[in-house]
Write a structure and sequence with these properties.
Blueprint (H helix, E strand, L loop, with lengths): L5 H12 L38 H7 L12 E3 L4 E4 L5 H7 L15 H16 L1 H6 L4 H21 L13 H21 L12 H8 L14 H5 L25
Antiparallel strand pairs: 1-2
Helix pairs in contact: 1-3, 1-7, 4-7, 7-8
Length: about 260
């Protein structure tokens, strides 16, 4: 995984909250990518399983000549020595379901699964992907539509959290992990980068305390992994309502872009 990737962060948090630290080990690529893609370097430590220098070596070992995007997170099977998944929307769900017999907490309870899947789709569409689409908008009209969609979603989730601790009341679920990563990065990265709105996260009466509360849940090393300073420093601030109008920027089996 990479600390800078929100999709990888979700997988790491689910793994820890589900109590799978002794079942699923975790290794980290460096925060920075070069033309060769993700790499294991001194800052985050070496690859403890295979001794790879580049994540591309894991892809090559799985599918020789793999021509696609080298993405994180990936789920590596030590028995077969290959990547079994790099499809970031599914890895947190797989950790919560396929590893259930070893888990100590159920973040994907059977009675809520349909509702969790529906809510996860909404979070991904309107927030997780939405904030990036705003930043990549290439025309003012598209930018306005996209940023208003994100703002409407923030209002919607702020209203949903009124009078409840988690998205499904008093039960912490995988959907909370999916949502939390967005407000955790909103004031530091998403809003300054994309100019989504004038309102900071602290102005949302329910989302702000929710984000603070969840930042204290789980193992310390995955509490509120804020955007690293080197990433924040180079993010140009965009005034809300002003589109920079740049061109928009494409799975081993089923992969996507992180």
């Amino acid at each position: 995984m990479s600390y800078t990737c929100p999709w990888a962060q979700r997988a790491a948090i689910v793994r820890d909250l589900a109590g799978l630290r002794d079942v699923v080990s975790l290794s980290h690529v460096d925060d920075e990518r070069d033309v060769r893609g993700w790499a294991f370097r001194e800052r985050r430590g070496p690859d403890p399983v295979n001794g790879f220098t580049l994540l591309a070596e894991a892809y090559e070992a799985t599918e020789p000549g793999y021509p696609g995007h080298i993405s994180v997170p990936v789920l590596w099977d030590r028995r077969t020595n290959r990547i079994v998944s790099n499809y970031f929307p599914d890895i947190p769900v797989d950790l919560g379901t396929q590893f259930a017999e070893w888990a100590t907490a159920d973040l994907f309870p059977e009675d809520l699964r349909d509702d969790i899947e529906t809510l996860d789709e909404e979070i991904a569409r309107d927030l997780s992907q939405g904030v990036h689409l705003v930043a990549r908008a290439s025309a003012q009209e598209d930018y306005e539509v996209l940023r208003r969609r994100v703002l409407a979603a923030l209002d919607r989730f702020d209203a949903r959290l009124a009078g409840r601790r988690y998205l499904f009341g008093d039960r912490l679920t995988e959907s909370d992990v999916q949502l939390w990563v967005v407000p955790a990065r909103y004031d530091l990265l998403h809003n300054p980068r994309a100019g989504i709105g004038e309102r900071p996260l602290t102005a949302y009466p329910n989302l702000w305390p929710y984000a603070r509360d969840l930042s204290q849940v789980g193992p310390r090393e995955h509490r509120l992994r804020r955007v690293p300073a080197h990433r924040r420093a180079r993010v140009p601030r965009r005034r809300a309502g002003a589109c920079r109008c740049r061109a928009a920027r494409g799975r081993l089996g089923r992969s996507a872009r992180p």
